[in-house]
Amino acid sequence: MVEVKDLCKNYGPVCAIDRVSFSLKKGDVVGFLGPNGAGKSTTMKIITGFMAPTSGEAKVDGFDVFEYPIEVKKRIGYLPETPPVYTDMFVRDYLEYVAQLKKVESSKIKSFVDSAIEKTHLQSVSNRLIGVLSKGFRQRVGIAQALVSHPEVLILDEPTVGLDPKQVSEIRDLIKQLKGEHTIILSTHILSEVQAVCDRAIIINKGRIVAEDSIANLSQLEKGSASLKVRLRTEVNLNSFLSSIHGLISVQGQGLDWEIKFNGDNQVHDAILSQLVQSKIGLVEFFPKKMDLEDVFLKLTYGQEASV
């Protein structure tokens, strides 16, 4: 459905994206994840035809973005970081206007607008001015304009930026409801967003893709090592108690909370637990720590792990 191959974009001497390549099948829900300035929005703008690449190609449903721009735009719904809404228009009038801009057949405009309003739960405000709506509802209107042409591909760029927790939860639920109906690219730097709604993640850093896989598989990037979380009753330095155990990779922390990283061997795990119990240092909690998307993200983009 979406094919990106060796995409590059330079701003003078600055390389915003460097040989970015990935592909999406119909129905995929993919998180495009990276820190601010990593190249996420630049890539999305090229895919939607808003910006030309320096080199490389992007195709949607087999149509090259710049050779067949009209065909591509028929198949894409795009919500940029700032929703492109007109605050002096009524919600329904605005969506009808967008449908006309997107060349929706006149006989289908009403049903398409009704469908977009229903999907985004805008029925209660469909006859209100956009300018008087809350930020959460404006964001819904932005998603509705992306949906109003029944696109095969839906691209959402930072859809929850600036929203309060309740509004964030509502937008996430909305994206979940759209699964299966559209191929969705969610561009964000918010890790919890990707874990909540996406099946796969593409991590980009400094203009290059550094990882691409399912959420579950990304959490296994450090296969062969394991971590344990330890909480103590009194403050001690765990390094001095565990220094004799072979197979340790690191012992990090201070005071009551510690993380012990080792080579994953069960015997090492048992030796650590035995040493902690025998030392009588007031062991309160002892449990394995799974590597999550935050750990992977920090390791790949900053060369470090999440803090203890």
Question: Care to describe what's here?
Answer:
It is built from 11 helices and 14 strands. The protein has 308 residues and is an alpha/beta fold. A 6-stranded mixed β-sheet has the order 6-7-8-3-9-10, with helices on both faces. A 4-stranded antiparallel β-sheet has the order 2-1-4-5. Helix 3 crosses helix 4 and helix 5 runs parallel beside helix 6. It is elongated. The two termini are 41 Å apart. The C terminus is likely disordered.
Short description:
The protein is of the alpha/beta class and 308 residues long. The chain has helices at 40-47, 69-74, 91-101, 109-119, 135-147, 165-178, 191-197, 215-218, 238-242, 266-279, 293-302; strands spanning 2-11, 14-24, 29-33, 55-60, 63-64, 76-79, 153-157, 183-188, 200-205, 208-214, 226-232, 248-254, 257-262, 283-289.
**Mind summarizing the main beta sheet?**
6 strands, mixed
Measured by DSSP, the beta-strand proportion falls in: 25-35%
Regarding CATH, which class of the largest domain? Alpha Beta
Helix count from the secondary structure assignment: 11
Please name the CATH architecture of the largest domain: 3-Layer(aba) Sandwich
Q: What is the 3D shape? A: elongated
Secondary structural class: alpha/beta
Tag the structure with descriptive keywords:
alpha/beta; Rossmann fold; Alpha-Beta Plaits; 11 helices; 14 strands; disordered C terminus
Write the layout of secondary structure elements.
Elements: E1 2-11, E2 14-24, E3 29-33, H1 40-47, E4 55-60, E5 63-64, H2 69-74, E6 76-79, H3 91-101, H4 109-119, H5 135-147, E7 153-157, H6 165-178, E8 183-188, H7 191-197, E9 200-205, E10 208-214, H8 215-218, E11 226-232, H9 238-242, E12 248-254, E13 257-262, H10 266-279, E14 283-289, H11 293-302
Parallel strand pairs: 3-8, 3-9, 6-7, 7-8
Antiparallel strand pairs: 1-2, 1-4, 4-5, 9-10, 11-13, 11-14, 12-13
Helix pairs in contact: 3-4, 4-5, 5-6
